[in-house]
C-alpha cells in the first residue's frame, strides 16, 4: 500500500511539474507577444510624433514671413480717432 501511495505521489508531482512548465511557456509566449506589441507601438508613436513635429516646423517656416508682415501691417496701420 505504501509503495502505491509513493508511486501516485511521484506521478502527481510529475503531472504538476509538466502542467507548471506548460503554463510558464504559455505565459512567456503571451508576455513576448504583449511586450513585442508595446515595443512596436512605442516605435509607431515615436515615428508619428517625429512626423508631426516635422510638419509643424515646416508649416511654421512656410507661414512665418507672411504672418509677420500681416502683424506689422496691422501695427503700422494706425487710424487716429476721437474717443
TrEMBL record:
UniProt subunit comment: V-ATPase is a heteromultimeric enzyme made up of two complexes: the ATP-hydrolytic V1 complex and the proton translocation V0 complex.
Q: Which InterPro entries match?
A: V-ATPase_G
Report the GO terms under cellular component: synaptic vesicle membrane; vacuolar proton-transporting V-type ATPase, V1 domain
Quick check: keyword Repressor in the entry?
no
Please state which protein family the record places this protein in.
Belongs to the V-ATPase G subunit family.
Recorded GO MF terms: ATP hydrolysis activity; proton-transporting ATPase activity, rotational mechanism
Q: What is this protein called?
A: V-type proton ATPase subunit G
- Keywords for this protein: Hydrogen ion transport, Ion transport, Transport
One GO biological process term is:
synaptic vesicle lumen acidification
Give a short account of what the protein does. Subunit of the V1 complex of vacuolar(H+)-ATPase (V-ATPase), a multisubunit enzyme composed of a peripheral complex (V1) that hydrolyzes ATP and a membrane integral complex (V0) that translocates protons. V-ATPase is responsible for acidifying and maintaining the pH of intracellular compartments and in some cell types, is targeted to the plasma membrane, where it is responsible for acidifying the extracellular environment.
Q: Name one Pfam family in it.
A: V-ATPase_G
Coiled coil (residue ranges): none
- Per the record's keyword annotation, is Amino-acid biosynthesis included, yes or no? no
Amino acid at each position: 500500500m505504501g509503495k502505491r501511495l509513493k508511486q501516485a505521489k511521484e506521478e502527481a508531482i510529475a503531472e504538476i511539474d509538466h502542467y507548471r512548465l506548460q503554463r510558464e511557456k504559455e505565459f512567456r509566449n503571451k508576455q513576448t507577444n504583449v511586450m513585442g506589441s508595446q515595443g512596436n507601438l512605442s516605435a509607431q508613436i515615436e515615428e508619428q510624433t517625429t512626423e508631426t513635429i516635422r510638419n509643424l516646423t515646416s508649416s511654421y517656416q512656410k507661414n512665418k514671413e507672411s504672418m509677420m508682415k500681416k502683424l506689422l501691417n496691422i501695427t503700422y496701420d494706425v487710424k487716429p480717432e476721437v474717443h
